[in-house]
């Protein structure tokens, strides 16, 4: 029970960081007319580069930056592009479609993560997991309904179809990025993932910034307030990227995305005081419905449909295959939970 509550609480920390990202972005775009989503992403990637890429650069042996680039540079290049464009597409969608549509369609990331985890990470779910997922999505639907009832600002909605397609595209890329992230941190390391994302993210966002947003930057009325907002945004985004791999390794990409559904509600609760949003009891109902869904999902561990020997080879594809002791018969299904104690070298697994 304690471990389950810890996993739920860790997810809510990520939601609070996203709330901070959303609030600073709102102030920048609406109060100061600074529409610079690529520049904001660029600042985050630069921070990741300075902290994690330089860490890889000073390491020795196979964990050195150059050694990693020689083996997997093209994979991280693709991942960096996916991560950058996922952020860009969802932010761009706000110019075309309504806030309610974005909130609902952004949930598309959940089935994407489930399917990719099933086929590529070989994760298997139980009935209680699907019940928890459905309850979480119902909570999101309740929040969207409350937005309509209180007449909360819905966004431009000038070309709704284009905006909806942008959200679906961004959600799909988010799902791919999250599952790829889980694969890397379970088989390689968190620092490698963040270092390579910082390297290629900074490179590609810098190019996109120079092409698409250099004129917008010149229009920004720079002063100390805007500077603080950019610093606050970058700090929250850097914290999100740095902490998310820790939570994914302790739970899963699916669990993290379910937890992030509460981020819009935290932003709303802050908006009640900062932007004088109207309140509805449905918001509280939505919040507790999502939390109930998270508790249901976290109450039972998922399992990996493969032999432990295969998983060890999967973790060390370039090394020799290490045979496990054969004192007991090993079944081809491995149940695992990452809520307990883990070592950095091996995932926490137990034979079903």
UniProtKB/TrEMBL annotation:
Q: Is Kinase among the key words of this record?
A: no
Q: Where is the signal peptide?
A: none
Provide the topology term for how it sits in the membrane: Multi-pass membrane protein
The GO terms describing molecular function are: transmembrane transporter activity
Pfam family for this entry, one: SLC35F
Domain of life, per lineage: Eukaryota
The portions of this protein that span the membrane are 42-61, 73-90, 102-123, 130-149, 161-181, 193-212, 224-244, 256-277, 283-305
The answer, when asked if Transmembrane is one of the entry's keywords, is yes
Q: Which UniProt keywords apply?
A: Membrane, Transmembrane, Transmembrane helix, Transport
According to the UniProt entry, the coiled-coil residues are none
Which family does the record assign?
Belongs to the SLC35F solute transporter family.
PANTHER family tied to this protein: DUF914-RELATED, SOLUTE CARRIER FAMILY 35 MEMBER F1
Question: Could you tell me what this protein is called?
Answer: Solute carrier family 35 member F1
Question: Taxonomic lineage of this organism?
Answer: Eukaryota, Metazoa, Chordata, Craniata, Vertebrata
Report which gene this protein is encoded by: SLC35F1
């Amino acid at each position: 029970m304690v471990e389950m509550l810890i996993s739920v609480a860790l997810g809510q920390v990520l939601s609070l960081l996203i709330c901070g990202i959303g609030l600073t972005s709102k102030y920048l775009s609406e109060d100061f007319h600074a529409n610079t989503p690529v520049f904001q992403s660029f600042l985050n990637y630069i921070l990741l580069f300075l902290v994690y890429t330089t860490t890889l650069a000073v390491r020795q042996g196979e964990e050195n930056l150059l050694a990693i680039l020689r083996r997997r540079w093209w994979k991280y290049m693709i991942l960096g592009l996916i991560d950058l464009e996922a952020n860009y597409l969802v932010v761009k969608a706000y110019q075309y479609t309504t806030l309610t549509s974005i909130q609902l369609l952004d949930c598309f990331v959940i089935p994407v993560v489930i399917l990719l985890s099933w086929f590529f990470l070989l994760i298997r779910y139980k009935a209680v997991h699907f019940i928890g997922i459905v309850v979480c999505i119902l909570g999101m639907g309740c929040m969207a309904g409350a937005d309509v009832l209180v007449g909360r600002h819905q966004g431009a909605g000038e070309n709704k179809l284009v905006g909806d397609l942008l959200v679906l595209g961004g959600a799909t890329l988010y799902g791919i990025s999250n599952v790829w992230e889980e694969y890397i941190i379970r088989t390689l390391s968190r620092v490698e993932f963040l270092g390579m994302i910082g390297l290629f993210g900074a490179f590609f966002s810098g190019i996109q910034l120079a092409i698409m947003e250099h004129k917008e930057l010149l229009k920004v009325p720079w002063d100390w307030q805007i500077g603080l907002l950019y610093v606050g945004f970058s700090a929250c985004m850097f914290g999100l990227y740095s902490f998310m791999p820790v939570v994914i390794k302790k739970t899963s990409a699916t669990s993290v995305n379910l937890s992030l559904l509460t981020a819009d509600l935290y932003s709303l609760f802050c908006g009640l005081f900062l932007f004088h949003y109207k309140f509805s009891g449905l918001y509280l109902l939505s919040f507790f419905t999502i939390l109930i869904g998270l508790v249901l999902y976290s109450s039972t561990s998922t399992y990996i449909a493969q032999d432990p020997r295969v998983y060890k080879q999967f973790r060390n594809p370039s090394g020799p295959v290490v045979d496990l002791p054969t004192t007991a018969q090993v079944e081809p299904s491995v149940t695992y939970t990452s809520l307990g104690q883990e070592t950095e070298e091996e995932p926490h697994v137990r034979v079903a």
